[in-house]
Amino acid sequence: MCTLEKRGNLFILTLTGDDQHRINPKLIGDLLSLLSQVKAQATRGSALITQAQGKFFSNGFDLDWAQAAGSEQGASERLLHMVESFKPVVAALLSLPMPTVAALTGHAAACGFILALSHDYIIMRRDRGVLYMSEVDIGLTMPDYFNALFREKIGDASARRDLLLRGLKMKGDEAVKRGVAEAAYDGEGEVLAASVRMAEELGKRKWNGEVYAEIRKGLFPQLSAIVGLSHKIVATPKL
């Protein structure tokens, strides 16, 4: 479902398997396990890049797995289970002691968009791939931490409205213009190369990882509180 590779100070987390990378209990467990490894091996200069193989970065929660429960109540319970189980993934990324970059070479829809937005930076393809919140189109409400993530990470209120209330499929150039993505490039190779450049440049700063994580949590206080993260003061000044 996903793999982890270490290249120098860079951690490369890759979603593998089927083309859509649907988020289900198995993938959630794999993500939490690998993010725990990343945190345990973090040093000054570390950075994380998350990428995916195929047409999709991720197409969101695995609704087929939910519906396989065989009843409406069972499907609803499975969906709620995925919603609650994914919250620790957002918490893990918010508290990771290093810069994080989501390299989107394909579509990021619904919870797949949430996964990307949980990173510090998003880099997209210009020629293929969109950001899309499908909830309004398929008739699902948004969990509290999804809403908090959008409020605190996307400053453009009209962008939030268009993504959440219009079901806008936002392409790379528009995402950059409206402050959702950091940059957009033509082609998969360019996206991955740009993501590595950014991660390496950030890693060269050799920030204290604990301080970096606490500043990040402080920047998104409501989201941090909802996903169960506390905030503390860390004082390690350079003299």
TrEMBL record:
GO MF, one example: delta(3)-delta(2)-enoyl-CoA isomerase activity
Entry keyword set: Fatty acid metabolism, Isomerase, Lipid metabolism
Top-tier EC class: isomerase
Coiled coil residues, start to end: none
Catalysis: reaction(s): a (3Z)-enoyl-CoA = a 4-saturated (2E)-enoyl-CoA; a (3E)-enoyl-CoA = a 4-saturated (2E)-enoyl-CoA
Pfam families according to UniProt: ECH_1
Cellular component terms per the entry's GO annotation: peroxisome
One GO BP annotation of this record: fatty acid beta-oxidation
Associated pathway: Lipid metabolism; fatty acid beta-oxidation
Domain of life: Eukaryota
Classification via CDD domains: crotonase-like
E.C. numbers: 5.3.3.8
SUPFAM superfamilies (UniProt xref): ClpP/crotonase (SSF52096)
The keyword Cell inner membrane appears for this protein: no
Family named by the database record: Belongs to the enoyl-CoA hydratase/isomerase family.
Name the UniProt record assigns to this protein: Delta(3)-Delta(2)-enoyl-CoA isomerase
The organism's taxonomic lineage, starting at the top: Eukaryota, Viridiplantae, Streptophyta, Embryophyta, Tracheophyta
